[in-house]
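Board notes (copied after class):
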Amino acid sequence: MDKKQAMDLIYDKYSEIKHIVYQLETQHFQKNNTKKGEYFEDITHDLYIRLDSDLSKIEKKPHLIYKFLDRILNGQMYIIYNMAKQMYVNFLKRENKYVTLNYRLMTDSERKQLIQMPRVFEKEENIYQQVDDYVNTFYWFDRKLFDLYRYEFKLHKTNMSVKTRISYSTIYRTVKRCKVKIKDRLKDQYYE
């Protein structure tokens, strides 16, 4: 069997693959503001292009072509489903469209978990306080630079370098030294 015959076998399964992609879109990626089945044909065609490119990368040995066909067409077409799902996600990312959660299909536990607000634990607040206390014991330059880095420039070393006219390498070394000191001092409390 050659590659052309293999693609013909895959083309013979067009209606099944198209149905799989349609089911995938309507069950998992349906948005309120889009028509039902708006993108499944595009995804199906992209899927065939990808299958053709994957098949062209295989050597012209019949046993490798059969192995590819077995992986793609046999069973319940799980590989096709996963490829189509990933292509659909990439397509939505490319189009800058957001996938909305279908609240009606969620279980009660998923709804409760979604609604709960994140809590800041006492242990985390305690560690933040310990970090602040420990930073206050640093050499004055290290303390000032590290506080600027944490609070004013929100972890942007390059912006900090431009605004303060301190070289990037000095900022990098100082911040790294401070982080290492903090990790060495507080690693036992953090991992308890």
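Comment from the instructor: Residues 3-115 form one domain. The chain has ten helices and no strands.
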